[in-house]
């Protein structure tokens, strides 16, 4: 069974969500001096993840 467009968008959304979470946690736990920048980048990953999730079933 191959992956269709909805499955690919779902996996991409999940992977981007995990990367965003990892970036935010990395900034908060390891690089405290740069936590604001890491958080902004992580929120950007969350936004892209949300957009990919919203595209499921529409493309």
Question: How would you characterize this protein structure?
Answer:
By secondary structure, this protein is mainly α. Helices cover 78% and strands 0% of the residues. The protein is built from 2 helices and no strands. The two termini are 20 Å apart. The model has no long low-confidence stretch (mean pLDDT 92).
What does the secondary structure layout of this molecule look like, with pairings?
Layout: H1 5-29, H2 35-55
Compact description:
The protein contains two helices and no strands. The protein is mostly helical.
The CA-CA distance between the termini, in Å, is 20 Å
Give the tally of β-strands.
Answer: 0
- In which range does the helix fraction lie? over 70%
Rg, please?
14 Å
Structural class of the secondary structure composition? mainly alpha
Mean pLDDT reading = 92
Can you write the helix and strand succession as a string?
HH
Task: Tell me the number of helical segments per DSSP (H or I, 4 or more residues long).
Answer: 2
Percentage of residues in strands? under 5%
**Sheet with most strands:** none
Protein name: CAL67264 family membrane protein
Transmembrane segments: 7-28, 34-55
Keywords: Membrane, Transmembrane, Transmembrane helix
InterPro entries: CAL67264-like (IPR047674)
Defining key terms:
elongated, mainly alpha, 2 helices, 59 residues
């Amino acid at each position: 069974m191959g992956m269709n467009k909805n499955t690919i968008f779902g996996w991409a959304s999940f992977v981007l969500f995990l990367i965003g979470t990892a970036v935010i946690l990395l900034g908060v736990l390891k690089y405290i001096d740069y936590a604001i920048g890491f958080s902004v980048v992580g929120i950007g990953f969350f936004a892209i993840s949300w957009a990919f999730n919203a595209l499921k079933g529409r493309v």
